[in-house]
């Protein structure tokens, strides 16, 4: 798995978790979903993604073009 796919998979898992939290706990968890979406949006424009930096430190190989 390359870095781009790892970041997208992580974002997808976080969104699914937040949807479950909205459904089972409280609608206030929509703020978490919004945070994830805003982070993905800014990463698409700037290329800066904290998750990508963490995955790099954990040894996930590059190979994609989104996060270098």
From TrEMBL:
It comes from the Bacteria. Gene3D superfamilies: 6.10.140.1340. Pfam families: YgaP-like_TM. InterPro entries: YgaP-like_TM (IPR021309). The chain crosses the membrane at residues 7-25, 31-55. Keywords: Membrane, Transmembrane, Transmembrane helix. Residues 2-56 form the Inner membrane protein YgaP-like transmembrane domain. This is Inner membrane protein YgaP-like transmembrane domain-containing protein.
């Amino acid at each position: 798995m390359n870095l781009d796919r790892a970041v997208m998979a992580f974002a997808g898992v976080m969104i699914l978790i937040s949807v479950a939290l909205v459904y089972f706990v409280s609608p206030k968890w929509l703020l978490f979903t919004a945070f994830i979406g805003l982070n993905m949006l800014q990463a698409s424009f700037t290329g800066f993604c904290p998750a990508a930096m963490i995955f790099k430190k954990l040894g996930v190989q590059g190979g994609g073009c989104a996060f270098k």
